[in-house]
Amino acid sequence: MSLGTVTPAQASSRTRTGIVLAGLLIALAVAAVFSACIGQVPTGPGEVLGSIAHRVGLDLGPLPAHPSGEVTLWEVRFPRVVLAILVGAALGCAGALLQGVFANPLAEPGVIGVSAGAAVGASAAIVVGGAFAAGWTVAASAFIAGLITTVAVYVLARHDGRTEVVTLVLTGVAVNAFAGGLIAFFTFIASPAARDQIVFWQLGSLNGATWSAVAVVAPMTVAGIAATMVIAAKLDLLSLGESAARHLGLDVERLRLIAVLIVALLVSSSVAFTGIILFVGLVVPHLMRIAVGPGHRVLIPASALCGSLVLLLADLGARSLVANADLPLGMLTALVGGPFFFWLLRRTRARQGGWA
């Protein structure tokens, strides 16, 4: 068999991967249109597509019949849909990257303290600025605090030029606990109105989505996913084992530092505008690993697409499950993600004897 020959098993795997990626893209497009239709101003799928077509110069489809339909779509619903897609992609990609570089199935962005650090920054900004602290001040504080916390976890875990995975995870646990104490302190000293704002920020929501927020998150998400794709082949090498990867010439420490910085960029920019959103970064990569296999050149884009779809559907549920109410997004992802992860755990134990 020549080197260029594709075996039936490889052809089947590629076909399956293509079907999964195409299915995710179609499901994401359908969910995005349907999500843009939901709200107090009645809008149909044809009007949503027609509005987009007219905006790009194509005289196709009807415009929204409601007098406020066009404004509602472009100022309220489309920014929310786009931000959900971006944040979901960032969390899915970050989870797949961390699980790959740590070789740990429990790794997720919260492990390295980025979410807890962002919450500390947001809480501090709300307490200092009061209940009327500007949204951009809170977002900027959350972003900076998330980055600082991530770098602190990495520096504290590093010893003699090396960073052991177990030490890094345990350092993240300690820093998360310390951050939890700071959040509790800020909540305790805050005024009642500011206290409510801190609590609701931590529950997660896309309620404040704007095009300005999209303009900040979009380049960071695209850059983070692109950087992850660049190191995807090295993540595959690392999956052979740390010693084997070193023998093959891989600079493991440098790869881990790059991975941590990418995750900090992806997650800090996302949670700064949405608050803490749990389980997307943990569950989605496991689900996609089942569907497309462990190769990171496929797993990374699949996790990004699936993360977008999951967060878009979660936001749709948050807006529509209770009439005239916007449920906390982090609450929904935790309520659905927790039992689903438990199902994955049971499935893996039954088929492979567990992850350990």
Write a structural description.
The chain crosses the membrane at residues 20-41, 78-98, 110-132, 138-156, 168-191, 211-237, 257-284, 326-345. This is Heme ABC transporter permease. The protein has helices spanning 8-37, 45-55, 69-102, 114-129, 135-157, 165-189, 192-203, 211-230, 232-238, 242-247, 252-274, 280-292, 296-320, 329-352, and strands at residues 158-159, 162-163. It has a single domain, classed as ABC transporter involved in vitamin B12 uptake, BtuC (Orthogonal Bundle), CATH 1.10.3470.10. Helix 3 (69-102) packs parallel to helix 8 (211-230), helix 5 (135-157) packs antiparallel against helix 6 and helix 5 (135-157) packs antiparallel against helix 11 (252-274). It has 14 helices and 2 strands; from the N terminus they run H-H-H-H-H-E-E-H-H-H-H-H-H-H-H-H. Strand 1 and strand 2 form a beta hairpin.
CATH architecture: Orthogonal Bundle
What letter string, H or E per element, gives the SSE order?
HHHHHEEHHHHHHHHH
- Under CATH at level 1, the class stands as Mainly Alpha
Largest sheet entry: 2 strands, antiparallel
Which regions have little confidence, pLDDT < 50, spanning 5+ residues? none
In terms of structural class, how would the helical and strand content be classed? Answer: mainly alpha
Would you give the CATH topology?
ABC transporter involved in vitamin B12 uptake, BtuC
Mean pLDDT across the residues is: 87
Q: What is the general shape?
A: globular
Radius of gyration: 21 Å
Helix content: over 70%
Strand order of the largest sheet: 1-2
Spatial gap, N to C terminus: 37 Å
Number of helices: 14
Q: Number of domains in the coordinates? A: 1
Per CATH, the superfamily is ABC transporter involved in vitamin B12 uptake, BtuC
